[in-house]
Amino acid sequence: MQNNNHLKSPGSSFMPDRREMMYGLGASLGAVAMTSLLAKTAKAETGTAGNPLSAKKGHHAPRAKSCIFLMMEGGPSHIDTFDPKPALDKLHLKEFVRSGDKQSAMSSGKRYYVQSPFKFQKTGQCGADMTVNWTNLAGVADEICFYRGLQAESVNHPTALYHMNTGSRLGGDPAVGSWVNYGLGSENENLPGFVVLPGLSHPQGGASNWGNGFLPARYQGTPFRPEGSPILDLQPMPEISRDHQRKNLDLLSQLNQKHQSRFPDADELSARMQSYELAFRMQMEVPGILDLKAETSKTQAAYGLGKEPTDKFGRKCLMARRLIEAGVRFVQLYAGTWDSHDYIHRAHGSLVQTVDQPIAALIADLKERGLLEDTLIVWCGEFGRTPDNGLRGGIAYGRDHNANAMPFWLAGGGVKAGHTIGATDEIGAKAVEVVHPIRDMHVTLLHLLGLDDNRLTYYSGGRYKQLSQFGGKVIDEIIA
User: Fold this and answer.
1) Residue 179 lies in a domain
2) Which of 74, 98, 234, 370 is an S-S bond match for 339, by CB 3.0 to 4.6 Å?
């Protein structure tokens, strides 16, 4: 609220407020000290050399320096991946009697229990549960922390994706990666701090899943194209020299700065100017990072490059490792869609084949390079799936949307490797142990990266806002 005390008449008697003290300092040597203090504060808040994208210190010592977020769009089934439910074998095809809990968005017609079409195995020294088709991930089970207590709040794909990605079901808020980018900056000023590797089509809800929301535009995610050149027109025409580009950018910057002086609150213009400069710097850095052929044939084979069905997602995982290694703070990869309302054996089976080898290779590669300890890996969808479904054609077994239970696991970055935390009920309908909402998981992810959700705020719309919306708590059980 604006303080108008400084508008009182000269003859009135009153104690000077902060604004008057600041104004008075301008006429004395105190102005020198105050200017220095403000400059140091601005530098601490925006990064070194006044660059808001440069690396910044968090609120406490981090367990992880960066994050790779593996988003399985569509809602994978916990019951058919990492959470065995033998009780469903006895209930298979028996009519499902709905309890008072909201299990599914689909409530009309008769419904029947459905057993998993996949057999389960115990993996690693920790004995983690996985279906047998996770043949490669089983080899790194001891690096993973499986969490069965997470609950979503929506069974609608766009709103649930928004919730998982931004903390709000409404859309338009900053993505998790944007908050991390805002709080920590990037360790490489020649690369974006937040990179997104989407599928051939954008997820439901579109680019808002990695938008900056009310944060300055410079913190939004930068999507790379899934096919062909990840970044179009990265290099100039052969006849355009780098000196020519530099002169053009300098002239454009002068014109933009002149225009911005008339509209100092035009955040989009400022972000565009910074984007031009970042693109200029990226021309030198990005080509080397995107050149996956620079990797050994052994590494390429480990990620499944050059063969189906692992080539596309393997390239994303290998690129994610190279981006993290180069100093990018947050990388999000999309794989989908896991929305298996029917033929779940065929749908989930093919998707697991697509991501199993690349994800296992990513974990093993990061560990071998000494990066896993400092890199937090997250695997999830937007919700889980139900233990029942309406039968379609009598044999097309599948599952509907379930916000009360979902698969979620983490690796590296200070989590309890080789542990399974929390539990769902005997049929997988809902989480019953170590139960937490998504906002608590967001708070935990920030905590592992050295950020305090209650202190990582931004003033917008008349109040200070944060990722968790209205606060949450760290899930201590998953932290080593």
Assistant:
1) yes
2) 74
